[in-house]
Predict the structure.
Amino acid sequence: MGDVAFHTATTVAEALTLVGDGSDARVVAGGSDLMVGVRSGKSPLPGTVVAIHRIAELHGLGVVAGELRIAALASHAEICADADVCSGWTALADASALVGSHATRNVGTLGGNLMNASPAMETGGPLMVLGATVTLRSAAGDRAVPIEELWTGPGRTVASPGELCTGVVVPALPAHSGSAYVRLEYRRAMEIAIVGASACVTLDESGIVTSARVALTALAPTIIRSPAAEAAILGTDGDDAALDAVAAGASADARPISDLRANEDYRRAMAGVIAKRAVAVAAQRARGESFPIPATPVFMKGSV
Ligand SMILES: Cc1cc2nc3c(=O)[nH]c(=O)nc-3n(C[C@H](O)[C@H](O)[C@H](O)COP(=O)(O)OP(=O)(O)OC[C@H]3O[C@@H](n4cnc5c(N)ncnc54)[C@H](O)[C@@H]3O)c2cc1C
């Protein structure tokens, strides 16, 4: 590794100056993805690294005019401990609560999770079913990117090298809505999703599903929606037949690969099982019934 220039920015403007104009600089937030990539040799450090953790504007989260606004440096620990996230945007709390260990959740940020663009990232699916928009800022100003348009492939986003993610905006959900994120994991901690599914459903007064979004994690080169699973639950009361159809739809929409952690057939079969669980928990929460956060351990009692 050659010499690396290390800067600590204290304002977004300062960081943008350092990463703009053809610079090869990369930003580092918590470093929990960046340094793993460097150490494994998969992603060598560039000539310049810009630390952004001291930029006050990029910290914090809260509800403004009904919308959830999360700044890029909000940590997973902060997100899953936030009462508003837990009650109103529960799938995101389910996800952040599963990231790595206590240490990983304390240093790992939402912006880093999203911009690292792993198809197995925890928070992307929940934010997709919750209809989030990501704010990217460059010297030219801010642009709002619907999260479904953020990723172009594993490790790739639509952000240009001179753009920073400053945060995420998540709209309020209608009454009688619920959301959930569930993953398949082989062990309880320090695991990434073998397969994951997120769901957000809205019910009418009689308990019929009037709106449904389902997203699949680690089942394609990027996180994807599952139109077949969504169609299967719409207009139903979430009974067993509808949930079985959700499972079939999710398996059909999945585009998994085989790797050392699971083969394609197993992932496709599990896509259905996990999507069915996510939809069932989201519907339960939409009905006002409580379900533990994170939801995953309830299903993974055998994991160690
Ligand atoms: C032991 C361990 C366990 C883990 N377990 C999980 C897990 O269970 N689930 C999971 O999803 N992840 C997991 N991770 C990955 C990682 O912790 C998360 O993805 C975390 O959210 C990354 O945030 P960070 O701030 O550390 O990112 P960094 O490493 O600082 O950055 C990651 C990438 O995003 C870019 N970046 C960061 N912030 C911005 C920004 N604001 N604007 C533009 N680009 C930016 C960086 O340049 C870099 O390319 C784990 C990591 C470790 C080391």
